[in-house]
Fold this protein.
Amino acid sequence: MNGAVVIPYDDAVATAWAELAAAAIHGGRDRSDRMDWWIAACAIRHGLPLVTHDNRDFDGIKSLTVITHPDPA
């Protein structure tokens, strides 16, 4: 994988995903974000910040540290 680190999944990631999904759906978010919830769950589970260009996908996830920068355009 050319130096890429693959973050493993486990029961704790699945539990974090389920909690994020339930809170998001209860809060009225669109279910189409569910893969973003998996990415967030992996970061939360492993105590990692999440680097993204679209931080709106992760708004409202208080247990997640998001690193982003404004779009230069």
User: Anything to note?
Assistant: The beta strands are 50-51, 66-67.
